[in-house]
Structures are given as structure tokens and as C-alpha cells.
Structure to design on (398 residues):
């Protein structure tokens, strides 16, 4: 697209910062609004898949992040007490050079924020957005201020704030308690795997290697414990020692991690939502990316990876199109099929590993798990986890 556009983005998260950097580097004037007084990451460790890594490569950030993350070759889960394998995904089954990358969310955020500021983006803090005027387009703040007309307004602020409709969304019954801890010196955990333990689908715990924040920082891991959203207040009022005993009974090796928790506040609760916006683009210059368009249970960090794909797709569409409306339709064409596919798969698979249904875990343990070891299931599972189903990278020219 010829000429410089005035672009406003709401949300200084992974997707918003990546998009802003691409656009600023292409010569556009970009400002990002964020509700916090200081920008900060929200969430736990995550897994970058080949999809997200390909976008970070376009930003020139992949090598630095790769060097600090931990390469994950396998997703491995056992049911308790039988220790029957019910999840065994090996990336090499799909492609020999494939891997996931366990990282701390703070590493991705700080790297993207630094890169965005270096690109000349204006980050406007302590500004909450109440709505958007599609005719301009322009964002409207919660204090009634009109934040100025722009050529393109992008909503990248997640699934739970004022610009996200609730008519097609639902809070998922289960969320997770999580914490980032130091990797133990005498570790029983696999440093190349995300490991999980299950009791039916109502109890799940896991450990994921999550790399380092800086070259001289120690290795870390992300610990998580699945919990019903309506039980989180009950958990906070119960004895922490009683919960530790319950968690250790599910996976005895994690007792050494549980000993590090001195209060309930040492763990953060994350509540998940499944939501697909009916109109990811609207008017002559409004678009959604990431969870603002398609929120789901963030299994294996796919939320961050999908947001990065959206950011690249929208930036490329603007670069290659003659005007903003044409670019928005091109963006939708590049991403809609992949988004639909992964929203459906996440909706189907989440209750199998997090839910109160007793039949689905039985089906998982005694039918799906054995079948998953028969060709071509191992290859398809690896491709699905890697985000490769639907060939999104080829569609985006990555």
C-alpha cells in the first residue's frame, strides 16, 4: 500500500506489539493503547510452535528467543493411578527438525515491547477503551474521550473487555493455577517434554520447561494445576497443606515443587473463555486479532501463536493491498479457515482433558489413546499440536 497510514491498536500484548512493529517498519504511524500504567505480560509460560516461531523470525527475533527458550520434543501424559499413557505426541513424527519452544511469557513480551519502541511506536498507557466509532474509525475511551480518527483501528485486547461481544462466547468450566519456579537441581522431570498427569478429566497437573529470562538467569519451569473456575474461591479458603497433599497424590514427583508454595498467592489463577467474534473485520477500517477474534482454552500456547499469525497476516495484507478495505478482506481470507479449524478442534479436545464428564476420559484412556499410536495418528497429532493442520504458513507465505 502506498503512503503512510495512521493506525491505532488497543492492547500492548503479544499480538498487538508484533502487529505494531510490522506496520511501523513499513512506514506507518502506529500508536498502541493499553489500560495498564506500565505494560506487562499476563499469563504463564507458554509453548511457541513452528507457527509463532516463523512470525518471530520475520521480526528478526527468533534466534534470541530460541537461545533462551527450552526445546520441547514431546508431550507426555499419564493417567493416575494406573500410569497408563493417554497422551504421547512427538514432534519428530511429523517432521524431524520440528520442536516446540517452552518460554516464559515475560521473555516474549519484553522482547516485543523493546522492538516495538525501537520501531518508533507510540505506546499510550493508562487508557481504557469503551468502544469504537466505525464511521471514523476511532476508539472511544471510558472517560468519554474521542481518541482521534485513524485509517485503521485494530482491537488486540483479548476476549473479556468492552469491545468483545459476549453473545458467542462462554466461560469454560475449568481454568488453571500456575506458577513459574526454578528448575530443580536434582530433577525427576524430562527437560525436553511437557509432562502431565490426569485423574479422569477433573484433575490434571503438569510441568513444562520454560527456559530463561536472560542469558545469565537460571532455567525455569511452569507448574500448573487444573481447577474448576467456581472452585477457585473454595481453594483459597482451604488449607494449603491439604491441597499440597492432594496434588502430590496425583503426581508424587511434584512434591519438591509444592514445597516452594508458602501461600495461596504464590499461584495465579487463569480463567479461560471460548469465543469467536462474528465480525473480525467491520466498517472501512476496523479489525480484530488474537483473542479479540478467537479466544479458546490456551492449550499448548496456541493463543499466542495464533495472535502472531494474525499480526503477520494483517501486516502483509496491508503491505500488498491498494487500500484498507481490500486489505481487511485479504486478511480475513488468509486467516479465517485456520481460525475456524483450530476453534473447532480446541472445543472438541478440551473436555477430554479438562471437564466433569466421566465417559470422555474413559473413551480417551481405553480407545483414543491406543489408536493414537497407530499410523497415521502420531503424525496427525504432531501436526495438530504444531499448528500445521490447514497449512497456515504456506497460506501466509511463511
Amino acid at each position: 500500500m502506498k503512503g503512510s497510514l495512521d493506525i491505532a491498536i488497543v492492547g500492548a500484548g503479544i499480538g498487538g506489539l508484533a502487529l505494531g512493529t510490522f506496520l511501523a517498519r513499513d512506514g506507518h504511524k502506529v500508536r498502541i493503547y493499553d489500560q495498564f500504567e506500565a505494560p506487562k505480560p499476563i499469563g504463564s509460560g507458554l509453548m511457541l510452535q513452528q507457527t509463532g516461531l516463523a512470525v518471530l523470525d520475520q521480526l528478526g527475533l527468533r534466534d534470541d528467543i530460541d537461545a533462551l527458550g527450552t526445546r520441547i520434543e514431546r508431550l507426555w501424559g499419564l493417567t493416575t493411578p494406573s500410569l497408563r499413557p493417554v497422551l504421547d505426541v512427538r514432534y519428530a513424527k511429523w517432521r524431524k527438525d520440528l520442536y516446540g519452544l517452552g518460554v516464559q511469557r515475560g521473555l516474549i513480551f519484553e522482547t516485543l515491547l523493546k522492538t516495538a519502541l525501537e520501531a518508533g511506536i507510540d505506546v499510550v498507557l493508562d487508557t481504557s477503551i469503551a468502544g469504537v466509532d466505525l464511521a471514523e474509525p476511532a476508539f472511544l475511551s471510558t472517560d468519554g474521550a474521542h481518541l482521534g480518527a485513524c485509517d485503521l483501528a485494530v482491537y488486540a485486547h483479548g476476549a473479556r473487555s468492552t469491545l468483545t461481544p459476549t453473545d458467542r462466547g462462554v466461560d469454560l468450566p475449568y481454568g488453571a493455577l500456575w506458577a513459574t519456579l526454578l528448575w530443580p537441581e536434582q530433577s525427576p522431570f524430562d527437560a525436553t517434554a511437557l509432562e502431565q498427569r490426569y485423574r479422569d478429566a477433573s484433575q490434571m497437573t503438569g510441568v513444562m520447561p520454560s527456559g530463561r529470562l536472560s542469558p545469565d538467569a537460571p532455567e525455569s519451569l511452569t507448574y500448573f494445576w487444573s481447577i474448576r473456575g467456581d472452585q477457585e474461591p473454595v481453594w483459597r479458603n482451604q488449607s494449603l497443606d491439604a491441597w499440597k497433599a492432594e496434588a502430590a497424590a496425583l503426581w508424587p514427583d511434584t512434591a519438591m515443587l509444592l514445597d516452594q508454595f508458602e501461600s495461596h498467592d504464590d499461584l495465579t489463577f487463569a480463567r479461560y473463555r471460548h469465543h469467536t467474534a462474528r465480525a473480525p473485520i467491520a466498517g472501512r477500517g476496523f479489525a480484530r486479532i488474537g483473542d479479540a477474534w478467537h479466544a479458546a482454552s490456551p492449550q499448548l500456547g496456541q493463543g499466542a501463536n495464533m495472535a502472531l499469525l494474525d499480526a503477520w497476516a494483517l501486516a502483509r495484507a496491508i503491505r500488498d493491498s491498494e487500500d484498507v478495505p481490500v486489505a481487511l478482506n485479504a486478511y480475513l481470507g488468509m486467516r479465517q479457515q485456520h481460525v475456524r479449524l483450530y476453534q473447532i478442534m480446541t472445543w472438541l479436545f478440551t473436555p477430554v482433558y479438562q471437564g466433569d464428564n466421566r465417559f470422555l476420559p474413559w473413551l480417551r484412556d481405553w480407545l483414543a489413546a491406543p489408536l493414537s499410536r497407530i499410523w497415521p495418528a502420531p503424525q496427525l497429532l504432531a501436526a495438530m499440536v504444531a499448528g500445521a493442520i490447514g497449512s497456515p504458513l504456506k497460506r501466509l507465505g511463511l
Observations:
- The first helix runs from residue 14 to 25.
- The longest strand covers residues 174-182.
- The chain has one domain: 6-170+273-395.
- The chain has a mean pLDDT of 93.
